């Protein structure tokens, strides 16, 4: 019998997850189907209960339902608990386990696919929302020399600081507090804000970029975003978008569900568009 998996979001038509997981299944010889679900706000639990009754074994979650999935899960991975959000649910007969693979997928894309060390490097994360919250624990596990979160919201930054009280390498700064002498030329600058979805750049000063920096936009499929253009104009030669993160977090879910890790490189190459 073919096993059933899905992704839920609203909107959902643009999701690459069905293509990615179907490609993984074909590559690894897995008998599974993977479908998109248009989520209805306020009805997450009801919808998922209905799909579980139809045999749903696993679910990927995208906006705006990651907090709903967190509340739905009876069991949470440490990463999901830290992130306060779930992007993968795995169902047993009477159980629902919640994981968050966003940060893990991001770190794997950077360290494996892009062959870039995080350990002992200086890292600047832009934004204090859900994407940053999901990335912080995996990034701190890599032991960067310094990790700065630039933010607009002191309240959100304070909430993050309370989640990671033990982190000695972690600092929070308002964008306007970034200083040329202290915050110039980070090794890795990541745009974890939603600015690229709106055709805008985060309010980050050019001096944070260096010629040997890696500028990484977590959004994907947008070409050369305003953030990446800002990095190029500041002299940064290495600019990438988040397509590798997208594929790697999907591979983490697939490996959990099916017990086999797919080869991500061919799919990343297929989904990558020129940054122009």
Write down the Rg: 19 Å
Share of helix, binned: 25-40%
Catalogue the unreliable spans. Answer: none
Q: Strand-and-helix sequence, N→C? A: EHEHEHEHEEHEHEHEEEHEHH
Number of helices: 10
The averaged pLDDT comes out at 94
Please state how the strands of the largest beta sheet are arranged side by side.
2-1-3-5-6-4
The coarse silhouette is globular
Instruction: Report the sheet with the most strands, covering strand number, pairing sense and barrel closure.
Output: 6 strands, mixed
Strand content: 15-25%
In total, the number of strands is 12
Backbone structural class: alpha/beta
Report the end-to-end length measured between terminal Cα atoms.
Answer: 45 Å
Description of the molecule:
With 276 residues, the chain is an alpha/beta fold. Helix content is 36%, strand content 21%. The protein is built from ten helices and twelve strands. The protein has helices at residues 17-28, 44-53, 66-72, 78-83, 102-113, 130-141, 154-163, 226-233, 243-258, 265-271; strands at 3-9, 32-38, 56-61, 75-76, 88-91, 96-99, 122-126, 146-151, 170-174, 188-191, 214-217, 238-240. The protein has a six-stranded mixed β-sheet, with helices on both faces. Strands 9-8-7-10-11-12 form a six-stranded parallel β-sheet, with helices on both faces. Helix 1 (17-28) packs across helix 9. It is globular. The mean pLDDT is 94.
